[in-house]
Automatic annotation (TrEMBL):
It comes from Medioppia subpectinata. This is Dynein axonemal assembly factor 1 homolog. Residues 1-36 are annotated as: Disordered. PANTHER family: PROTEIN PHOSPHATASE 1 REGULATORY SUBUNIT 7 (PTHR45973:SF23), PROTEIN PHOSPHATASE 1 REGULATORY SUBUNIT SDS22-RELATED (PTHR45973). It comes from the Eukaryota. The lineage of its organism: Eukaryota, Metazoa, Ecdysozoa, Arthropoda, Chelicerata. Cilium-specific protein required for cilia structures. Gene3D superfamilies: Ribonuclease Inhibitor. It is found in: Nucleus. Residues 19-31 have a biased composition (Polar residues). Keywords: Leucine-rich repeat, Nucleus, Repeat. SMART domains: LRR_SD22, LRR_TYP. Its main location: nucleus. Pfam families: LRR_4 (PF12799), LRR_9 (PF14580).
Length: 326
């Protein structure tokens, strides 16, 4: 609309500045008002502040006795205010807006750290957390496994749903028992040989086309490698302690090379291309097998599908999602 110079339409520069300052003040006050008042029990060993709309961690510096601190589902953007919390054993910052791992140096007694569902791009600044046993970094924007060599007591590492392409830099994690790297962009099972105590490996929904590199992982008892591009079951000769093998949703045409897995209890092989009933004869060699999944394989279209499996392996108690009748 054209300005005709009427006095009512003309605002002096000073008036405009005053209005802007007032708006800034109001905005600041509104932001402060949005920050909820949180009551803290200074004597409590466990404190849960989940779903509390917390923006800043500065107020937490008084929790010098706290051992477990939960801050799930808040709006925290920066890790801070923790230098006095040396007694902390568990810290949960799941589902916030954190972009950088920082300011954790004082937490030398920390055993569990959960930074899942944030906006972190790099694993860093963890070298002082030598007592850490569990580290969760699910659903961030991490592209490389790095800077974890000092975490020699780590038993569980969860890196699912990131942007990782290579398994690497895990040589010093000799106590690691569980490694989760599902939903990444990994193309090869590699660099796992130092993990002699590894019991669980989850590498679902990646780009693996061959089972390999597990020769030194003799203690592996759970392998989840579904939703990849594997065409042959192989490379498990030294993994005789396997109790669960999930190889569903791959490109298998045959069931083979698992008859030596005498401790196997669960076999998930659904959504593949197994079409020869003769392949299933090897199930007779698995005395501890209790659960099998073969649905959405060609063999599953047979009218006597369930009956045939039970005749081959009578000890099985569950076929697909249905329990077997005794």
């Amino acid at each position: 609309m054209e300005n005709n110079g009427n006095a009512a339409d003309i605002v002096s520069e000073s008036d405009s500045m005053d209005d802007n300052n007032q708006m800034d003040t109001n905005s600041s006050q509104n932001e402060t008002a949005d920050e909820p008042e949180v009551s803290l029990d200074l004597e409590a060993l466990e404190i849960e502040l989940n779903h509390s709309k917390i923006q800043s961690m500065d107020m937490l510096s008084v929790l010098t006795r706290t051992e477990c601190l939960g801050l799930r589902n808040n709006v925290i953007k920066k890790i801070e205010g923790l230098n006095q919390l040396v007694t902390l054993r568990e810290l949960e910052l799941y589902d916030n807006q954190i972009t950088k791992i920082e300011n954790l140096d004082a937490l030398v007694n920390l055993e569990v750290l959960d930074l899942s569902f944030n906006r972190i791009r790099k694993i860093e600044n963890l070298e002082n957390l030598v007592n850490l046993k569990k580290l969760f970094l699910i659903n961030n924007k991490i592209s490389k496994i790095e800077n974890v060599s000092e975490l020699v007591n780590l038993e569980l590492l969860e890196l699912g749903s990131n942007r990782i392409r290579v398994i690497e830099n895990l040589d010093n994690l000799v106590n690691l028992k569980s490694l989760f790297v599902g939903k990444n962009k990994i193309t090869k099972l590699d660099n796992l040989y130092p993990l002699k105590n590894l019991e669980l490996l989850s590498i679902q929904s990646n780009r693996i086309i061959k089972i390999e590199g597990l020769d030194q992982n003799h203690n592996l008892d759970q392998l989840y490698i579904s939703n990849n591009g594997i065409s042959v079951i192989e490379g498990l000769e030294q993994n005789k302690k396997l109790q669960t093998l999930d190889i569903a949703v791959n490109r298998l045409k045959k069931l083979q090379n698992i008859e030596h897995l005498a401790q196997l209890e669960e076999l998930w092989c659904n959504d593949n291309g197994v079409d020869d009933w003769k392949d299933l004869e090897l199930l007779k060699e698995l005395p501890n097998l209790r659960t099998v999944y073969f649905e959405r394989n060609p063999i599953a279209s047979h009218q006597m599908y369930r009956k045939k499996i039970m005749l081959i392996s009578p000890q099985i108690t569950q076929i697909d999602a249905t329990m077997c009748r005794s």
